[in-house]
Amino acid sequence: MTTEIRIERVLPATISRVYDAWTRADLMVRWYCPNPQLELKVQADVRVGGEYVVEMGPHVVRGSYLEVEPPHRLVFSWAWDGSADEISRVQVDLSEVADGTLMILSHTGFATAENAANHQMAWEPELQRLSDLLAADAESRFVDSDRGEAPSSQ
User: Would you tell me which CATH number, out of the four given (3.40.630.30, 3.30.465.10, 3.30.190.30, 3.30.530.20), belongs to the domain 5-146?
Assistant: First the structure.
């Protein structure tokens, strides 16, 4: 088993919308937790050296932004409060493709394969929530424009 995670997804949105979903706290609170039953709070100072804190109920992950290259790349450290685990690293690379945006998420630096597997199990439903959010936003924009209304800014 490996101590690294790599997930590729084509998301149904423009690259700027996907980047926004990764960097705007008001959007992150709509998907950035694998368990939708938990209260989610997000603080994000998205700049190199800026810090973020994500509270998923009693679970808190935090880190700092290492690379910020809108709208193509975001790299940040990842550490759970109260854990002796090593600090790991998340890299999100985005590129435009015919069906939307290709997102490649790499989460590296795990001490054990078990820790990597546990994070993989959490990332999968979380990223599905992201995809669902982007698809719903795209649908509401389509409906708004079909009515001749301006798309909402969310």
Answer: 3.30.530.20
